[in-house]
Each structure stands twice: as structure tokens, then as C-alpha cells.
Amino acid sequence: MSTLSKEHIKQLVRENNFQSVSDVNAYLKDIFKDIIQELLEAELEAELGYAKDDVANKNTDNSRNGYTPKKIKSEFGEIDIQVPRDRKGEFQPKIIPKYQRNVSGIEEKVIALYARGMSTRDISQQIEELYGFSLSPEMVSKITDRIAPEIKEWQQRPLEPIYSFIFMDAIHYKVKDEGRITNRAAYIVLGVTIDGYKDILGIWIGDNESSKFWLGVLNDLKNRGVEDVLIFCVDGLTGLKEAINAAYPKSEVQRCIIHQLRNSFKYVSYKDLKAFSNDFKEVYHAINEEVALEKLYELKEKWGKEYPYAIRSWENNWEVISPFFKFPEEIRKIIYTANIIEGLHRQFCKVTKTKTIFPTDSSLEKMLYLASMNVVKKWTQRYKNWDRVLSQLMIQYPGRLEEYI
């Protein structure tokens, strides 16, 4: 399609005496209407085989039969068009199919706005301001409901047979349930493939976080084809390690060091927090587990009497903290913190910050799914120095990766 020359555009401006952007929009709306009308006429002419004013060349027993008025929604607002009819009722327009009344791509725009965290009411108002026609909050909700099959397909899609790392965490929301406000947990599972790429494996909406629900999630992963996971990175939820061991007995469970530190620091007075945290660096920066234990005992000598619970937390959880120390820097950076999943949570918070309460579980699921799709689009790079990471994993877990590489 050729574009208008500058001279042609100048001529249009002179002839139409545009005074504002609204004038330009009104002109484009009229042009758009005329183009749609001409395309419909051309379609019927092709169908019948003769022009409207060329009956002499008519070679069909079908003919034109007036018009049907139709109101369509476009990017220029609502437009009234006249859809030509044929006498036999065989004409099926392609430019605007029989039952289509929206030619603006409005559904995609609604879903994009919903994915950014706008409420159905806000979207309704914005559509009216932008396009000049009304779209009720209920209609907005119905439009976003059309992605439900897409979510179901995504949630049930087959997964990789093995993942090098899987991060598990939950984020909490309030949802209406039969008139009551209840606390709901969105269970998030994020995997790292053996090629070093991140992916969100699923989002499950359930009751407040529990190891029993997590076991159901893990079994779901198994049913979707996940045969093995080298390392699970998790927080300190009671019973979570046992749930992982039940589903994936060969997997290593690594407590997120950052979660562990936060759990310790909540017992420490603010005046001592800086000194205490600096001393703790000696523990989690240790070159191996033996040195880490020595530094922990030194820390206990110094701070144990004043803050016994802070130290005891590390001693009680050492089994799920200690795997960290057998790995080199490249792997430690990956499992040191659940930053990867906390970064995802931050994206969720951006789109849900205006929603203090969700009307249903499905509305929460829709918003988190759309936000997830926006995040995953940006995950195009694999982890830095992945070749070295993979080499270390093959040494640490012999015989478990070779058949998948």
C-alpha cells in the first residue's frame, strides 16, 4: 500500500481546515467508514459478478437486495455502516463477518490493560474515553474470561523431564468466597532447565500455604512429565522438605539463605543488627561446610547468650542450609537467594496493588497468568556462565543429567 505524499497531506489539511486533534480524528473516522463501505460493496460485486450499474453484464439469477444497518466498534469509536444483502442470502462478508461488531482489536487492548493491573471499571472508563463507546465492567470481565481455556492449557502443558533448579514460594491475597473475605495463597513454581533458561511452571490458587498443598503441586509436576529435579530452593515452611522428599526422593533441598537470614535477624535488636549481620557473612561466605560450621560456632560464642533463637534457627535447619557450601560461586549465586522468584512477586505486586480484594479465585488467576506471560517474554537469556554451572552439576549429581543432554 502506498503512503500519502507530503503535498497530498498538506492539501488535505488546507481543504479540511483542521483546528484540533478531534477534527483529524473525526475526518479519519469518516474516511474509515467510507473505506469499509466500499470494501463491502466490492465484496458483493465480486460475489455476484457484475457491478451495481452494469445489469447488462449480469450472468446470475441472484441480485442485490438492499442493506442491513449495522453498528460496529472501531478505534475511531462507534460507526454506522450499511451491509449490502443479496436476494438469496448467500453473501457472507469477509471484511466484517456476519456476527462481528468489533473491528478495533478491542479485546486485545482490554486484556493488555487487565494484565497491567487495571480494574474492570477503570478499563471500562478508559475505553470510553479513548474510543467513544461504552463497555461495561461486566463486558470487560467477559472479555478477559475468554483466556480461561488458554490458562488451563498452559497449566496442563507438558514440562521438561528434568530441571536443574526449581524455586517454590507462595504469595498471599484476599479473595471473596460466598460473601466472606478469605486469605488465599498463589503457589508459584519456577524452574531452570538444564540449558539454563528460566520458566514459570505453574500457578496454583489454594488455601493458606501448607506442605500438604505443596505435595499436590509436586505430584502435578510429576504428572506433567517432570521426572527429576536436582535442587529445590525453598523457604522454611514446616513440612516442605518432607513433601519434596516424598515426591522426588533423589532431589536436594536447599533453604534460601536470604530467607534464613531474615528469620534470624527478626530476633536481633536494631542496635546490634549491623554488627550481627556482618559477622554472619563469615558463615555464608565460607569456602566449605567445615569452615562455615566453625564460623557459626564462633558466632554462637559471641552472640549466643544474647540472641539464642537467632543462632538456634541455623543449627536446627543446617541440613537444608549446608548443601550450599559444596558448590562453587556460579551455583551459589543461583541458590543463595530466591531473588528470581521474588522478582516475579514484585511484578505481581505491580499489577495487583490496586486490588485489595479479588472477587474470585479465577480473577486472581487471570491477572497472575497475564503478568507471568509479560515476565516470561523478557526471559530470553540463560544464566551467566551456564557451561561451568552444568559441568559442576554433572560432577555433583553423576548419572542424572547425561541422558537429557
TrEMBL record:
The keyword Cytoplasm does not apply. Belongs to the transposase mutator family. PANTHER family: MUTATOR FAMILY TRANSPOSASE (PTHR33217:SF8), TRANSPOSASE FOR INSERTION SEQUENCE ELEMENT IS1081 (PTHR33217). Keywords: DNA recombination, DNA-binding, Transposable element, Transposition. InterPro entries: Transposase_mutator. This is Mutator family transposase. GO terms for molecular function: DNA binding; transposase activity. GO terms for biological process: DNA transposition. Pfam families: Transposase_mut. NCBIfam families: transpos_IS256. Required for the transposition of the insertion element.
